[in-house]
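Lab notebook, bench 4. The sequencing result for the construct came back, and we need a structural model before the next group meeting so we can plan mutations. Quick request posted to the team channel:

Model the 3D structure of this chain.
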Amino acid sequence: MPSYTHLGELPKKRHTQYKRHKEDSFLQEGLYYEHVITVKGFDRAYSVLYHLRPPTRIKHIETIEQLDLSSTENSIRPHHLRSQNLSAQGDPISGRVPFTFNEDVIISRAKPSQQQDTLYRNAAATEIIFFAKGQGIMESPFGKVPYKTNDYLVIPQGITYRLISDNINAEDQLIIESLEHVELPKRYINPDGQLKLGAPYYERDFHSPQELITLDEEKDTDILVKENQLLSKITYAHHPFDVIAWDGFVYPYTFNALDFEALTGTIHLPPPFQQTFETPGFVICNFVPRHLDHHPDAIKIPYAHSNVMMDEMLFYASGDFGSRKGIDAGSITLHPRALTHGPHPGTIKASEASNYTNELAVMVDTVKKLQLTPQAMAHDVADYSLSWLE
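Done. Here's the predicted structure in C-alpha coordinate form:
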Protein backbone atom coordinates (compact mmCIF):
# COMPACT_ATOMS: atom_id res chain seq x y z
CA MET A 1 0.00 0.00 0.00
CA PRO A 2 1.04 3.64 -0.32
CA SER A 3 2.32 5.28 2.83
CA TYR A 4 0.47 6.77 5.82
CA THR A 5 -1.48 9.95 5.18
CA HIS A 6 -4.28 12.00 6.73
CA LEU A 7 -6.74 14.81 6.11
CA GLY A 8 -8.60 17.08 8.53
CA GLU A 9 -8.17 17.76 12.23
CA LEU A 10 -7.73 14.50 14.13
CA PRO A 11 -8.11 13.79 17.87
CA LYS A 12 -4.96 13.13 19.84
CA LYS A 13 -5.73 9.42 20.38
CA ARG A 14 -7.73 6.77 18.52
CA HIS A 15 -10.85 5.27 20.13
CA THR A 16 -11.36 8.22 22.47
CA GLN A 17 -14.12 10.81 22.65
CA TYR A 18 -13.83 13.36 19.86
CA LYS A 19 -16.14 16.13 21.08
CA ARG A 20 -18.04 18.13 18.51
CA HIS A 21 -18.23 21.85 17.96
CA LYS A 22 -21.46 23.56 19.06
CA GLU A 23 -22.18 24.87 15.54
CA ASP A 24 -22.47 21.38 14.05
CA SER A 25 -26.03 20.49 13.06
CA PHE A 26 -26.14 16.85 14.20
CA LEU A 27 -25.47 16.92 17.96
CA GLN A 28 -27.10 13.66 19.00
CA GLU A 29 -24.32 12.50 21.33
CA GLY A 30 -22.00 15.47 21.18
CA LEU A 31 -19.29 13.40 19.47
CA TYR A 32 -17.89 12.71 16.02
CA TYR A 33 -18.40 9.07 15.08
CA GLU A 34 -15.31 6.91 14.64
CA HIS A 35 -15.27 4.41 11.76
CA VAL A 36 -12.42 1.94 11.22
CA ILE A 37 -11.88 0.38 7.77
CA THR A 38 -9.62 -2.68 7.88
CA VAL A 39 -8.00 -5.12 5.46
CA LYS A 40 -7.71 -8.87 6.13
CA GLY A 41 -9.66 -8.73 9.35
CA PHE A 42 -7.71 -6.66 11.87
CA ASP A 43 -4.22 -7.83 10.94
CA ARG A 44 -3.32 -5.63 7.98
CA ALA A 45 -3.68 -2.03 6.81
CA TYR A 46 -6.47 0.17 8.15
CA SER A 47 -7.77 3.72 8.26
CA VAL A 48 -9.80 5.60 10.88
CA LEU A 49 -12.50 8.05 9.77
CA TYR A 50 -14.58 10.54 11.80
CA HIS A 51 -18.17 11.14 10.65
CA LEU A 52 -20.77 13.78 11.52
CA ARG A 53 -23.31 10.97 11.84
CA PRO A 54 -23.10 7.23 12.58
CA PRO A 55 -22.18 5.47 9.31
CA THR A 56 -24.67 2.68 10.16
CA ARG A 57 -28.00 4.46 9.61
CA ILE A 58 -29.61 2.13 7.03
CA LYS A 59 -33.27 2.84 6.24
CA HIS A 60 -33.98 0.37 3.43
CA ILE A 61 -32.36 -2.48 1.49
CA GLU A 62 -33.60 -3.59 -1.91
CA THR A 63 -32.27 -6.29 -4.23
CA ILE A 64 -31.82 -4.83 -7.71
CA GLU A 65 -30.56 -7.73 -9.84
CA GLN A 66 -28.32 -10.76 -10.09
CA LEU A 67 -25.64 -9.71 -12.58
CA ASP A 68 -24.86 -12.15 -15.36
CA LEU A 69 -21.29 -13.40 -15.37
CA SER A 70 -21.18 -16.46 -17.57
CA SER A 71 -18.47 -17.99 -19.72
CA THR A 72 -18.35 -19.23 -23.28
CA GLU A 73 -15.73 -20.51 -25.75
CA ASN A 74 -14.21 -23.51 -23.97
CA SER A 75 -11.58 -24.26 -26.62
CA ILE A 76 -7.94 -23.47 -25.87
CA ARG A 77 -6.89 -20.83 -28.38
CA PRO A 78 -5.47 -17.31 -28.39
CA HIS A 79 -7.94 -14.46 -28.73
CA HIS A 80 -7.90 -10.94 -30.09
CA LEU A 81 -10.86 -8.96 -28.75
CA ARG A 82 -11.49 -5.66 -30.49
CA SER A 83 -12.93 -3.91 -27.46
CA GLN A 84 -12.37 -0.55 -29.16
CA ASN A 85 -15.61 -1.35 -31.02
CA LEU A 86 -17.57 -1.33 -27.77
CA SER A 87 -20.53 1.05 -27.94
CA ALA A 88 -20.87 3.85 -25.42
CA GLN A 89 -23.55 3.01 -22.87
CA GLY A 90 -24.72 3.64 -19.33
CA ASP A 91 -22.79 5.41 -16.61
CA PRO A 92 -19.32 4.44 -15.29
CA ILE A 93 -20.93 1.60 -13.29
CA SER A 94 -23.94 0.38 -15.31
CA GLY A 95 -21.97 0.73 -18.54
CA ARG A 96 -19.35 -1.84 -17.57
CA VAL A 97 -19.10 -4.84 -19.86
CA PRO A 98 -17.34 -7.91 -18.38
CA PHE A 99 -14.84 -9.47 -20.78
CA THR A 100 -12.94 -12.11 -18.80
CA PHE A 101 -12.88 -13.49 -15.27
CA ASN A 102 -11.89 -16.24 -12.86
CA GLU A 103 -12.22 -16.80 -9.10
CA ASP A 104 -9.71 -13.99 -8.37
CA VAL A 105 -10.45 -11.25 -10.87
CA ILE A 106 -13.08 -9.75 -13.18
CA ILE A 107 -11.85 -7.60 -16.07
CA SER A 108 -14.34 -5.27 -17.77
CA ARG A 109 -14.42 -2.44 -20.27
CA ALA A 110 -16.50 0.71 -20.13
CA LYS A 111 -17.22 3.65 -22.41
CA PRO A 112 -19.90 5.47 -20.41
CA SER A 113 -22.37 7.81 -22.10
CA GLN A 114 -23.79 9.48 -19.00
CA GLN A 115 -22.57 10.71 -15.64
CA GLN A 116 -22.83 8.58 -12.50
CA ASP A 117 -25.72 9.83 -10.35
CA THR A 118 -26.01 7.06 -7.73
CA LEU A 119 -23.19 6.31 -5.31
CA TYR A 120 -21.53 2.91 -5.69
CA ARG A 121 -19.69 0.47 -3.42
CA ASN A 122 -17.97 -2.77 -4.41
CA ALA A 123 -18.30 -4.87 -1.26
CA ALA A 124 -16.40 -7.88 -2.65
CA ALA A 125 -13.45 -6.47 -4.57
CA THR A 126 -10.77 -3.82 -4.76
CA GLU A 127 -11.18 -1.96 -8.04
CA ILE A 128 -8.35 -0.80 -10.27
CA ILE A 129 -9.69 1.48 -12.99
CA PHE A 130 -7.26 2.28 -15.80
CA PHE A 131 -8.27 5.36 -17.76
CA ALA A 132 -7.14 4.87 -21.35
CA LYS A 133 -8.90 8.20 -21.86
CA GLY A 134 -10.63 10.47 -19.42
CA GLN A 135 -10.31 13.15 -16.81
CA GLY A 136 -12.34 14.05 -13.76
CA ILE A 137 -12.74 13.60 -10.03
CA MET A 138 -13.55 10.62 -7.86
CA GLU A 139 -15.52 11.52 -4.72
CA SER A 140 -15.62 9.32 -1.61
CA PRO A 141 -15.78 9.71 2.19
CA PHE A 142 -12.00 10.24 1.98
CA GLY A 143 -12.47 13.33 -0.19
CA LYS A 144 -11.68 14.18 -3.80
CA VAL A 145 -9.14 12.35 -5.96
CA PRO A 146 -8.51 13.87 -9.41
CA TYR A 147 -7.84 11.40 -12.24
CA LYS A 148 -6.58 11.80 -15.80
CA THR A 149 -5.68 9.78 -18.89
CA ASN A 150 -3.28 6.88 -18.18
CA ASP A 151 -4.07 6.90 -14.45
CA TYR A 152 -4.67 3.77 -12.43
CA LEU A 153 -7.34 4.63 -9.84
CA VAL A 154 -7.17 2.11 -6.99
CA ILE A 155 -10.34 1.93 -4.86
CA PRO A 156 -10.07 -0.39 -1.83
CA GLN A 157 -12.86 -2.87 -1.23
CA GLY A 158 -15.95 -1.50 0.49
CA ILE A 159 -15.39 2.20 -0.21
CA THR A 160 -18.38 4.18 -1.49
CA TYR A 161 -17.61 6.47 -4.41
CA ARG A 162 -18.78 8.46 -7.41
CA LEU A 163 -16.88 9.32 -10.61
CA ILE A 164 -17.49 12.76 -12.09
CA SER A 165 -16.03 13.12 -15.58
CA ASP A 166 -15.02 16.41 -17.16
CA ASN A 167 -16.24 14.99 -20.50
CA ILE A 168 -18.21 11.77 -20.16
CA ASN A 169 -18.15 11.10 -23.91
CA ALA A 170 -14.35 10.93 -23.85
CA GLU A 171 -14.11 8.28 -21.10
CA ASP A 172 -12.53 4.92 -21.98
CA GLN A 173 -11.86 2.57 -19.06
CA LEU A 174 -10.42 -0.84 -18.25
CA ILE A 175 -11.76 -2.09 -14.89
CA ILE A 176 -9.94 -4.78 -12.92
CA GLU A 177 -11.83 -6.13 -9.89
CA SER A 178 -9.60 -8.02 -7.48
CA LEU A 179 -11.17 -10.39 -4.96
CA GLU A 180 -7.90 -10.16 -2.99
CA HIS A 181 -6.07 -7.22 -1.44
CA VAL A 182 -3.98 -5.30 -4.01
CA GLU A 183 -0.40 -4.48 -3.04
CA LEU A 184 2.82 -3.12 -4.47
CA PRO A 185 5.38 -5.86 -5.20
CA LYS A 186 7.16 -6.76 -1.97
CA ARG A 187 10.56 -6.77 -3.66
CA TYR A 188 10.21 -3.00 -4.22
CA ILE A 189 9.84 -2.28 -0.49
CA ASN A 190 12.65 -2.19 2.08
CA PRO A 191 12.30 -3.63 5.63
CA ASP A 192 11.40 -0.14 6.88
CA GLY A 193 8.32 -0.03 4.66
CA GLN A 194 9.70 2.53 2.18
CA LEU A 195 9.98 2.01 -1.56
CA LYS A 196 13.57 1.12 -2.33
CA LEU A 197 15.97 3.29 -4.23
CA GLY A 198 15.91 1.75 -7.69
CA ALA A 199 12.23 0.77 -7.55
CA PRO A 200 10.37 1.84 -10.72
CA TYR A 201 8.30 4.38 -8.79
CA TYR A 202 8.45 6.43 -5.59
CA GLU A 203 5.95 7.40 -2.89
CA ARG A 204 5.44 10.83 -4.45
CA ASP A 205 4.13 9.13 -7.64
CA PHE A 206 1.03 7.97 -5.72
CA HIS A 207 -1.68 10.58 -5.24
CA SER A 208 -4.08 10.35 -2.31
CA PRO A 209 -7.23 12.45 -1.64
CA GLN A 210 -6.32 16.11 -1.35
CA GLU A 211 -9.59 17.75 -0.29
CA LEU A 212 -12.37 16.64 2.05
CA ILE A 213 -16.00 17.03 0.97
CA THR A 214 -17.83 16.81 4.36
CA LEU A 215 -21.47 16.91 3.24
CA ASP A 216 -23.80 17.69 6.15
CA GLU A 217 -26.99 16.41 4.54
CA GLU A 218 -29.78 14.73 6.51
CA LYS A 219 -31.60 13.19 3.55
CA ASP A 220 -32.19 9.72 2.12
CA THR A 221 -29.17 8.68 0.03
CA ASP A 222 -29.00 5.57 -2.15
CA ILE A 223 -25.88 3.47 -2.63
CA LEU A 224 -25.63 0.67 -5.19
CA VAL A 225 -23.72 -2.16 -3.50
CA LYS A 226 -22.17 -5.04 -5.42
CA GLU A 227 -21.47 -8.24 -3.45
CA ASN A 228 -20.02 -10.73 -5.91
CA GLN A 229 -22.69 -10.63 -8.65
CA LEU A 230 -25.60 -9.49 -6.45
CA LEU A 231 -26.48 -5.81 -6.90
CA SER A 232 -28.49 -4.17 -4.12
CA LYS A 233 -29.66 -0.65 -3.35
CA ILE A 234 -29.11 0.45 0.24
CA THR A 235 -30.77 3.66 1.40
CA TYR A 236 -29.09 5.57 4.24
CA ALA A 237 -30.69 8.33 6.30
CA HIS A 238 -27.93 10.80 5.38
CA HIS A 239 -25.20 11.36 2.82
CA PRO A 240 -22.15 9.17 3.66
CA PHE A 241 -19.59 11.79 2.56
CA ASP A 242 -19.78 13.46 5.98
CA VAL A 243 -16.22 12.78 7.13
CA ILE A 244 -14.42 15.65 8.91
CA ALA A 245 -11.04 13.89 9.27
CA TRP A 246 -9.28 10.57 8.63
CA ASP A 247 -5.88 8.92 8.71
CA GLY A 248 -4.29 5.59 7.87
CA PHE A 249 -3.05 3.38 5.06
CA VAL A 250 -6.36 2.42 3.38
CA TYR A 251 -7.68 5.03 0.93
CA PRO A 252 -8.28 5.52 -2.80
CA TYR A 253 -5.31 6.76 -4.80
CA THR A 254 -4.04 7.24 -8.35
CA PHE A 255 -0.82 6.26 -10.06
CA ASN A 256 -0.11 7.37 -13.61
CA ALA A 257 1.29 4.70 -15.90
CA LEU A 258 3.74 7.18 -17.42
CA ASP A 259 5.33 7.73 -13.99
CA PHE A 260 6.57 4.13 -14.10
CA GLU A 261 10.35 4.18 -14.68
CA ALA A 262 10.78 1.45 -17.24
CA LEU A 263 13.96 -0.62 -17.07
CA THR A 264 15.82 -1.66 -20.20
CA GLY A 265 19.00 -3.63 -20.74
CA THR A 266 21.37 -4.70 -23.43
CA ILE A 267 18.97 -7.56 -24.17
CA HIS A 268 15.26 -8.07 -23.56
CA LEU A 269 14.03 -7.94 -19.96
CA PRO A 270 10.97 -10.09 -19.14
CA PRO A 271 7.63 -8.72 -17.84
CA PRO A 272 8.44 -8.95 -14.09
CA PHE A 273 10.68 -5.92 -14.63
CA GLN A 274 7.53 -4.00 -15.61
CA GLN A 275 5.37 -5.19 -12.70
CA THR A 276 3.20 -2.53 -11.04
CA PHE A 277 0.75 -4.31 -8.68
CA GLU A 278 0.37 -7.80 -7.26
CA THR A 279 -2.21 -10.00 -5.56
CA PRO A 280 -2.11 -13.71 -4.62
CA GLY A 281 -4.06 -14.56 -7.80
CA PHE A 282 -2.60 -12.26 -10.44
CA VAL A 283 -0.09 -9.53 -11.23
CA ILE A 284 -0.43 -6.31 -13.23
CA CYS A 285 2.44 -5.18 -15.44
CA ASN A 286 2.78 -1.82 -17.10
CA PHE A 287 4.47 -1.54 -20.52
CA VAL A 288 5.29 2.12 -21.11
CA PRO A 289 7.20 4.11 -23.74
CA ARG A 290 10.88 3.27 -23.31
CA HIS A 291 14.25 2.84 -24.99
CA LEU A 292 14.79 -0.57 -26.50
CA ASP A 293 17.58 -3.08 -25.90
CA HIS A 294 20.98 -1.82 -27.02
CA HIS A 295 23.18 -4.89 -27.54
CA PRO A 296 24.39 -4.72 -31.20
CA ASP A 297 22.68 -8.05 -31.90
CA ALA A 298 19.66 -7.55 -29.64
CA ILE A 299 16.23 -8.78 -30.73
CA LYS A 300 14.20 -5.75 -29.74
CA ILE A 301 10.82 -7.36 -29.27
CA PRO A 302 9.75 -10.11 -26.83
CA TYR A 303 10.79 -13.68 -27.54
CA ALA A 304 8.34 -16.55 -28.00
CA HIS A 305 7.00 -17.70 -24.66
CA SER A 306 5.06 -20.71 -23.41
CA ASN A 307 2.56 -19.84 -20.69
CA VAL A 308 3.10 -22.86 -18.47
CA MET A 309 1.27 -21.78 -15.32
CA MET A 310 -0.47 -18.46 -16.11
CA ASP A 311 -2.92 -16.93 -18.57
CA GLU A 312 -1.90 -13.59 -20.09
CA MET A 313 -4.28 -10.76 -20.90
CA LEU A 314 -2.96 -7.60 -22.57
CA PHE A 315 -4.89 -4.36 -23.01
CA TYR A 316 -3.28 -2.13 -25.63
CA ALA A 317 -3.92 1.46 -24.55
CA SER A 318 -2.01 3.56 -27.07
CA GLY A 319 1.02 3.72 -29.35
CA ASP A 320 2.48 1.26 -31.84
CA PHE A 321 2.89 -2.39 -30.86
CA GLY A 322 6.03 -3.69 -32.49
CA SER A 323 5.59 -7.42 -31.89
CA ARG A 324 1.98 -7.66 -33.13
CA LYS A 325 0.24 -7.00 -36.43
CA GLY A 326 -3.39 -5.91 -36.62
CA ILE A 327 -3.42 -4.65 -33.03
CA ASP A 328 -4.76 -1.16 -32.33
CA ALA A 329 -5.44 0.95 -29.28
CA GLY A 330 -8.31 -0.70 -27.41
CA SER A 331 -7.44 -4.24 -28.50
CA ILE A 332 -7.29 -7.00 -25.90
CA THR A 333 -5.35 -10.21 -26.43
CA LEU A 334 -5.70 -13.33 -24.31
CA HIS A 335 -3.02 -16.02 -24.55
CA PRO A 336 -3.89 -19.10 -22.49
CA ARG A 337 -1.49 -21.42 -20.71
CA ALA A 338 -0.15 -24.42 -22.63
CA LEU A 339 0.14 -22.45 -25.87
CA THR A 340 3.22 -20.64 -27.15
CA HIS A 341 2.85 -17.03 -28.19
CA GLY A 342 5.37 -14.57 -29.57
CA PRO A 343 6.12 -11.97 -32.21
CA HIS A 344 4.24 -12.04 -35.47
CA PRO A 345 6.21 -12.99 -38.62
CA GLY A 346 8.32 -10.12 -39.93
CA THR A 347 8.25 -8.07 -36.74
CA ILE A 348 11.71 -9.18 -35.55
CA LYS A 349 13.33 -7.89 -38.75
CA ALA A 350 11.19 -4.75 -38.76
CA SER A 351 12.32 -3.86 -35.22
CA GLU A 352 16.08 -3.94 -35.95
CA ALA A 353 16.34 -0.23 -36.70
CA SER A 354 14.17 0.82 -33.76
CA ASN A 355 15.69 2.36 -30.65
CA TYR A 356 12.48 3.39 -28.89
CA THR A 357 8.90 2.18 -28.49
CA ASN A 358 5.91 4.44 -27.74
CA GLU A 359 3.58 1.60 -26.74
CA LEU A 360 1.46 1.75 -23.60
CA ALA A 361 -0.20 -1.48 -22.50
CA VAL A 362 -1.58 -3.09 -19.34
CA MET A 363 -0.93 -6.79 -18.75
CA VAL A 364 -2.77 -9.04 -16.29
CA ASP A 365 -1.19 -12.47 -15.69
CA THR A 366 -3.44 -14.83 -13.73
CA VAL A 367 -2.71 -18.04 -11.84
CA LYS A 368 -6.13 -19.49 -12.62
CA LYS A 369 -7.63 -19.90 -16.08
CA LEU A 370 -9.44 -16.88 -17.47
CA GLN A 371 -12.97 -17.40 -18.81
CA LEU A 372 -14.36 -15.30 -21.65
CA THR A 373 -17.86 -13.85 -21.52
CA PRO A 374 -20.36 -13.82 -24.41
CA GLN A 375 -19.98 -10.03 -24.44
CA ALA A 376 -16.24 -10.44 -25.07
CA MET A 377 -16.76 -13.04 -27.79
CA ALA A 378 -18.92 -10.55 -29.69
CA HIS A 379 -15.66 -8.68 -30.37
CA ASP A 380 -13.47 -11.73 -31.07
CA VAL A 381 -11.29 -11.91 -34.19
CA ALA A 382 -12.03 -15.50 -35.18
CA ASP A 383 -8.86 -16.25 -37.15
CA TYR A 384 -6.39 -14.60 -34.72
CA SER A 385 -4.89 -17.99 -33.82
CA LEU A 386 -3.77 -18.38 -37.48
CA SER A 387 -2.03 -14.99 -37.62
CA TRP A 388 1.46 -16.45 -36.96
CA LEU A 389 1.44 -18.36 -40.25
CA GLU A 390 3.68 -16.85 -42.93
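DSSP finds two helices and 29 strands in the chain.
Will bring this to the meeting.
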